[in-house]
Amino acid sequence: MLTRYDQAASRAAAQVMGQYSTSFSLATRLLRGRVRADIRHLYAVVRIADELVDGAAAQAHTDPAAALDAYEQTILAAPQQRLHTDPVVHAYAITARRCGFHREHLVAFFSSMRADLTQREYSPSELQAYIYGSAEAIGLLCLQIFLAEEDVSPADRAAMERGARALGSAFQKINFLRDLSEDSSTLGRTYFQQVQSGRIDETSKSALIAEIRRELATAALTIDLLPASARVGVSAAADIFAELTNRLAATPATALATTRVSVPNHTKAWLAARAVRRRGHSSQTSATAEN
Prior knowledge:
The structure is a single chain. 73% of the residues lie in helices and 0% in strands. By secondary structure, it is mainly alpha-helical. The chain has a single domain, classed as Farnesyl Diphosphate Synthase, CATH 1.10.600.
């Protein structure tokens, strides 16, 4: 009976990912079995926390800060308990136990989420800390999933950690540029000091694009070090976000204040197929077919 509940909880977490991100859903299908499920479990928790601070709690007439505090305590304690009535927490706990998640990464993540409730502008050092918790720490948790059953050298692990942090940071900065209008007008947040009233000039945008591309290049150097179970999925995600970066670069800075740039689904599918061809994947058919 518990095994059946484990499976149901895992499917519930997968539904959260499917509802919110076509890019990560597609890339995650290219991961293999256990790794695929564990990434979905982690993503669901991250997404729920993000929703709490981005308006879902307030729209439900619930105190966002209290809801986030309670959720953090639930998540931090989750691995200590075998059964949870919340299926997403249950699925996450399975993954956290199996992969030995480091508590400090989760604490850093929730600290960044909490900043979104009170902070409206960020200094460079504050932004660096925010990106570490909201993105780089999640990249390190993903790496713990990828390496949970792997024996790697300290040097390779250190290189992969640098790559995971760089990729997480790049993803976050890409999202900041893509969501410039919503973050400013709807959520009242300004992550980049170069942004004024939801607008950024061309010079500042180009500098940020160059910074993002450097981080994507740093991450790309370490993808081949990843286990085969993770390599293709990570490559696909990186390629999709690199394409989004190119589209942001081609969009006039003035348009970012009113336009949310995206990658069409057919282009995402093509990039995923290219990642399979370039990196190789023995489980290509089954992984692509799974929901």
